Amino acid sequence: MNGLPPLLAGLPDRDVQDQDTCGCCKGLDVVTPLRLENRPGLTEIVYRPGTYADFRASQLARLSSAENVALRRLKSRETDDFSIALIDAWSCVCEVLSFYQERNANEAFLGTALERRSMVELGRLIGYRLRPGVAAGTDLVFLLDDPPGQIGNAVRGKLPAPSVAVDEVAIPSRTRVQSIPGPGETAQTFETIEDVNARVAWNALVPRKSRFEAPQNGDVGCWLQGVTTNLKVGDAIVIVGSERLTDDPGSERWDVRKLTAVIADPDADRTRISFTHALGSVDPPALPAQTGHRIFAFRSRASLFGWNAPHPNVLAKETRGLYKLVDGSDWTFTIDDSGVALDGIQDGWVAGSLVALTSPSYVELYVVASAVDDGVANYAVSGRATRLTFDSAENLDTFEAAYRSVSVYGKSEELAFAETPFVEPVMGDALILGVLVDGLIEGRRLVVRGRLAQALVAGEGIELTEGGETHAVEVGERVTLIAAPRQVSPGSSSYEWRLRAPGGFEGGVTAPLASFRFVEAEVTTPVVAETAVLNSVSLADDTHSKLNLDDPLVRAYDLATALIHANVTAATHGETTQEIVGDGDSARAFQTFQLKQAPLTHVSAANETGAASTLEVRVNDVLWHEAPTLYGRTAGERVFETRTTDEGATVVQFGDGASGARPASGRNNIVATYRKGIGRAGSVKAGALTTALDRPLGLREVFNPLAAAGGEDPETEAGARENAPISTQTLGRVVSLRNYEDFARGFAGISKAKADWAWDGEARRILVTIAGPDGAAVDPSTGDLFDNLVHALRTLGDPFVRSTVVSYRLATFKIDLTVLVAPDHLEEVVLADVEAALRDAYGLQRRGFAPLVTSSEIFATIHAVEGVAAVDLNKLYRTVPPDSEPIVHRRLRAQPALLTPSGDLLAAEILALDPAPIDLQVMT
Questions:
Q1: Geometric angle at alpha carbon 816, from 812 and 817, rounded to 5°
Q2: Which of 10, 69, 487, 667 is the most buried (most CB within 10 A)?
Q3: pTM given for the model
Q4: Cβ neighbours, 10 Å, residue 877
């Protein structure tokens, strides 16, 4: 800029400075043209040789110059003199010309241009086109009508999803769904971008919530099928294995227990029973059943015959002598190996049933070999009895000593075990369903939705760590899993946890699974969702399918609320329209047409620019292809190029027959199909897309479980000023570390990027940290922006260099200020201006990956506000460690991207001003 030629030919290059220091000769020298001095990096250049006053003064000085002898006779300097008026008029002309010449000079440089057209033309010189903006994307979940006769659906939680779909509903691409706008918003239309076949059975697949678990040593209860078990507290049951029933009559693999609780669960059609004490025995040592577990309820209880015989002491001495009884002794009760006699006739005691003989200190289990009605006379009594013989006589004589107190439990009825419910969260890359499902194919999109999983701390010494700060959680406290736990290494018992403690502190800890006990999430726990891609479907067992995913789930979901939606398709912002563009004319070169609808939708793509147009142009029903430029195209190529007007309309231009073919002549033979709608307005929140403008038969409802993301407005002049040079640095390939950063920053939908080297223990890796427009996080599970950027970097980058893309970490800082307001200024106005200036300079939207925030910068920002006389910085600190102590830190550092020793990828931080109100006081 320093070597620009003079604007007015013939005028010498004069210095504005002269030897006149007292001003007495002012107005006697020629001062134009002024010397032009422009240092590099200016946002505006000075390119005017003078102003009106300068030009007028220079011309008046020339009237008195000795070089102009012919002008000596012009003695008057009055403004009404004709010559002076002519000088005045010519000075006005020079003023106007120099002004526009300066503006033209500024428009000739990318760093100083203000007009959009200048930006466009300057960009074309280096092959750069202003980014057109990108449509936001999300996933849509379609729910179909329930089969006839079914009330409710799995989403409502009333009934499980049916295992067999009655119909398939084809949901074609370009199915339109509109958002319900919130305050200050307008309705946005999204369209699906792929065909998908939906089934009722895939509305909401429910994860398996129970599994059969055989009763184990130490269990104090189990689950039974049904709610009409006719059990009550105090009833006796037996859990016995095949070891006792079929293998060995002397096996002790059984447990007789009385019930302490019977709790029915009608919703799941099962009953929970609890025992008086745990299964297994310590004294004498015994283990519960091991295989072939069966459970029986004893429906009847009886006593042995003679249990109520009168004590011999009540008999006459002579009578006792007849029985040869010793004075004071009871009857000599005996139980022979043939079995026992029960008091009275017992109905339902049949061969093959189970019988438990119990005394206050002992119990024994037998299988009835025979049961017959009998009459018995013994112990001075007689009566009817049921005589039982058993498959074993083991320890029968043990009950003789406690004959009167023996209880015999019988009339056994077998019950069925139910599956045991569990609360382990839904996570990992293998999801077991509660039903069998078929028809799902590889590559199908799934959405997993539910509350974040929670757990109770069960181990001692659990401390969460974040940024150097630690927070201890006590045993029994409830924590929320922010992410799914990851195994430290294959075969390791330790896992890495990312948790939120009571009070909101979030941090990580390494601990075994036993340190936490999963519980059902509270109703206040946030509901989250993420997209997954199906790899395959296999059988978990005969009645349950397993969904194998391409990648493990990022989060852990509460089992009770988790749902897996399989009627899912991707959708992007915009609405398809078709129009007749115009008439082709082969006699015209470079024929142009303007589309009637604006703005033209561009979607995220894995190419150099990160965006792809949705425009299709056909001439006589033959598809023509869009090209970045017609330059270098051959005469027969059916191509066209597009450009965007200042008003946002799209102009289509065809070739001249040498650089691209000319369209054939015809009436209304050029037709365009495209989508309209673009930008951040399409970044609607989760659940906003619920109005189906196109409703296939059988569709009940539609919604977006994830917020739309990736939308970006068309590039502004300021953005082009920054991004245009980047295109010349990358040239469509990614080689150096700076290339990775520049390529990501120039990718449509990405506004900030930073590349860093990191060592992963084996090789160097490039970590690319990215941020979306206005500091939005780029979520890998939402839309295609993240995946497209990763794919583009891998395709265009060095195949021998490992690279990882992560969304940035937000860190905030706080300020405490005391401001002295200058006289004659309103305090409230100045304080408001100070806060606005700080938020403008250090807000998330303006803040990049700058490594430092310094107190000197803050002082400079505040002193630039009109009305500030002085300022005192009381506190400057980060809200999270390090430098989180509330004092004045002269500089705050943003943490760079790094790879931790455990393999965690930590993105680079963007250090921005905390959104909470700034602590501002007035200095008195």
A1: 130
A2: 487
A3: 0.78
A4: 17
Q: Report the b/e string of 117-126 with b at 16+ CB within 10 A.
A: ebbbebbeee
Token couple for 661: 């073919």
CB 662 within 8 A of CB 586: yes
What gap in Å lies between CA 31 and CA 37, rounded to an integer? 15
DSSP helix/strand/coil, 3: coil
> By the 8 A CB rule, do 407 and 340 touch?
no
Domains belonging to the chain, first-starting first, are 1-109 (no CATH), 137-203+683-703 (no CATH), 211-415 (no CATH), 430-562 (no CATH), 575-676 (no CATH), 732-807 (3.30.300.30), 809-922 (no CATH)
Tens of pLDDT, residue by residue over 748-767, are 888 889 998 887 777 788 89
**C-alpha R_g of the chain:** 44
Phi, psi angles (nearest 5°) of residue 64 = -95, 5
pLDDT tens digit sequence for 529-551 = 999 999 999 999 889 999 999 99
Whether 669 and 654 have beta carbons less than 8 Å apart is answered as: no
3-state helix, strand, coil in the chain (%, to 5): 15, 35, 50
807: amino acid identity, one letter: S
Specify whether the backbone of 609 is left (phi greater than 0), alpha (psi in -120 to 50) or beta: alpha
pLDDT score of 212 more than 50: yes
* Rounded distance between C-alpha atoms, residue 610 and residue 726, angstroms: 14
Q: Hey, what's the torsion of the CAs at 715, 719, 721, 722, to 10 degrees?
A: -130
Half-sphere exposure of 775 (CA within 13 A, CB side): 17
Residues 6+ apart with CB under 8 A from 410: 298, 300, 301, 302, 346, 348, 349, 353, 354, 355, 356, 368, 388
Q: What is the pLDDT of residues 463-477, one digit of tens each?
A: 998 766 789 999 999
Are 179 and 190 in contact by the 8 Å Cβ rule? The answer is yes
Kind plus residue range of the DSSP H or E element containing 739: helix 737-745
At residue 121, what is the residue type?
E
Mean pLDDT of the 389-416 span:
92
What's the pLDDT score for residue 901? Answer: 61
- The distance of Cα 424 from the centroid of its chain, to the nearest Å, equals 21
**Ranges assigned E (strand) in 689-808:** 689-692, 699-703, 752-759, 764-771, 802-807
Residue type, 302: A
Pair of tokens at residue 388: 């039982």
pLDDT tens for 359-398 read 998 999 999 999 999 999 888 889 999 999 999 888 898 8
Residues in contact with 62: Cβ distance below 8 Å, sequence separation at least 6, in sequence order? 30, 68, 71
